[in-house]
Design goal:
Blueprint: H1 4-18, H2 25-36, H3 43-46, H4 64-81, H5 88-106, H6 145-177
Helix pairs in contact: 1-2, 1-5, 1-6, 2-5, 4-5
């Protein structure tokens, strides 16, 4: 998997790109949380859930169906809790893309067993053709030393830098097109 750093950075970036007004910053945080949420499936290791099972790591929780459900539930809750929030369609799209981005980043890593994007309908695990992100160890205690450095270095290059460039591009575009 990619680390929490890469997942959350991409989610927050998507939030800023899709809901650029500063008043929507709580939704940037929500998007960051949605981008990391699929890794809640690691709790299954404590209960001896097999990695490759439907409920295993990178299984159903990393699927596009899960992203649809997360986006739908959080959008509905958000509208109920904060009626003056952003447009529903844009918020739903943000939360869907943020949650789905998790599987995309994981499918770009150098390890694991792939991502079950189409679970539960198709449990095959997939990787993308481009896999430059060093796989992160599972568990905070394991995220230390040379391995953590290698992961953070690859995420800086393949996730953080592109996110920064997108945000810079948005800033330049908005500065030139706002009257």
């Amino acid at each position: 998997m990619a680390s929490i750093v890469g997942h959350c950075a991409l989610g927050a970036t998507l939030g800023k790109l899709l809901l650029p007004e500063r008043r929507y910053w709580p939704y940037w945080v929500l998007a960051a949380a949605c981008a990391f949420l699929p890794d809640a499936d690691v709790i299954g290791f404590k209960f001896h859930v097999a990695y490759a099972s439907l409920w295993g790591h990178r299984g159903l929780s990393h699927s596009l169906l899960a992203a649809v459900l997360v986006a739908t539930v959080f959008t509905a809750f958000s509208r109920w809790r904060w009626p003056a929030g952003p447009p529903l369609g844009r918020l739903w799209l943000l939360l869907f893309l943020a949650t789905a981005s998790h599987g995309v980043l994981d499918a770009m890593t150098t390890g694991g067993e792939g991502v079950a994007f189409f679970s539960p309908f198709d449990t095959k695990r997939y990787f993308l053709g481009l896999r430059p992100i060093a796989v992160s160890p599972i568990g905070v205690k394991n995220f230390v030393g040379a391995w953590a450095t290698r992961v953070l270095r690859s995420e800086a290059q393949w996730v953080l830098l592109p996110c920064a460039l997108l945000l810079l591009g948005q800033r330049i575009f908005r500065a030139r097109h706002i009257v």
